[in-house]
Amino acid sequence: MTHKIAVLAGDGIGPEIVDEGLKVVKCLQADFGFDAEIEAAAIGGAGYDLAGDPLPEQTLALCRQADAILFGAIGGPQYDDLERELRPEKGLLRLRSSLSLFSNLRPAMLYPQLADASSLKNELVAGLDIMIVRELTGGIYFGQPRGIRHEIERIARSAFDISMLRNRKLCSVDKANVLEASELWREVVTRVAAEYPEVELSHMYVDNASMQLVRAPKQFDVIVTSNMFGDILSDTAAMLTGSIGMLPSASLDADGKGMYEPIHGSAPDIVGKGLANPLATILSLAMMLRYSLRQAELAGMIDTAVGNVLNQGFRTADIAGGAHSVSTAEMGDAVVAALRELG
Ligand code: NAD
């Protein structure tokens, strides 16, 4: 089966990091029988430059047809004075809502080799691997509890599905002791749990969850929560790892189609210098293979290759801590070489 992948490199370091992701795709095609059709399109400032629109029509059409989207980053100082509707960020927001990408997956992973990058003690965070599933469509906080049941159901299902692909342990975070909407949240999540008897479900209030994330983050595997709580908790979790250039993310629709992107932005301060860390993008590609294209084995190989490259001592400047570093392209090449060794 041919997988259709739309590639939206965007602005700033977007094209640099996406190029390294595409090297990995080419390696999978050449050496591992991965069958994919890649098509690129403009978004953000690049979309504005090309077509006067941060989300050109042909880009949206391509994304609608694709099985998955690899996204780089958007934005830059040269676009800051544009009117709101034409700004790069608007292109990304419109794309997310046009494709109904309601389930936002934000992993916080810390490779043991990088444990010193965290502000927490080594033993608390080394090997950290948690996934926060955040409801992305709003609604829940601002609407009446009635009518949002289906929104809770679909994010709960999304989180249980992801738990099934991981360690089958799910923590639902709410504020059911105070908020009426949270009471409904807990009731619906508990009901959906009956469809997933293999998954161990627990509940936690959000204030406790924020404390536990910093006290003992490795107790969590998958966390599911609503839009606002997810916004805050996922940033806390990301910072536990201390390395913005390492973290991927995904936004999925109800059928598992998704957009995959690093959590960082377009980093205008380092554009064109070979300083950008491409690993968040390469790990986003691994998430795409796992969650949208159902190629778990290839996804696992990318994760392993990244781990091996770190073991071998390859570091881009952002994770080198002042020690010797390699360029964006050298890091991409190292991942490809490590992948080939796994073949
Ligand atoms: P940023 O994430 O672009 O950069 C923050 C800092 O992290 C910078 O010092 C940058 O050099 C560094 N950094 C980021 N990614 C890195 C990588 N892969 N390797 C090494 N270092 C990296 O955030 P910002 O500076 O606040 O925003 C810059 C632009 O990006 C703005 O226009 C903003 O709107 C946009 N932005 C886009 C997205 C997105 O595309 N999803 C997300 C956040 C910000």
Radius of gyration: 20 Å
Indicate the CATH class of the largest domain: Alpha Beta
Oligomer kind = single chain
Main beta-sheet annotation:
10 strands, mixed
Within CATH, the superfamily of the largest domain carries the name Isopropylmalate Dehydrogenase
Would you tell me which CATH topology of the largest domain applies? Isopropylmalate Dehydrogenase
Q: What's this model, at a glance?
A:
With 343 residues, the chain is an alpha/beta fold. 45% of the residues lie in helices and 17% in strands. It has helices at residues 14-32, 45-51, 57-65, 88-98, 122-125, 149-165, 180-193, 206-215, 227-241, 279-291, 296-311, 317-320, 328-342; strands spanning 3-10, 36-40, 68-73, 103-109, 129-135, 169-174, 200-205, 222-225, 248-252, 258-262.
Question: How would you describe the overall organization of this protein?
Answer:
45% of the residues lie in helices and 17% in strands. The chain has 343 residues and is α/β, with parallel strands linked by helices. The protein has two domains: 1-100 and 256-343, 3-Layer(aba) Sandwich (Isopropylmalate Dehydrogenase); 103-252, Isopropylmalate Dehydrogenase, CATH 3.40.718. It has a ten-stranded mixed sheet with strand order 2-1-3-10-9-4-5-8-6-7, with helices on both faces. Strand 1 (3-10), helix 1 and strand 2 (36-40) form a beta-alpha-beta unit. Helix 1 (14-32) crosses helix 10 (279-291), helix 6 crosses helix 7 and helix 10 (279-291) packs antiparallel against helix 11. The two termini are 21 Å apart. The site of nicotinamide-adenine-dinucleotide (NAD) has 21 residues, from helix 4.
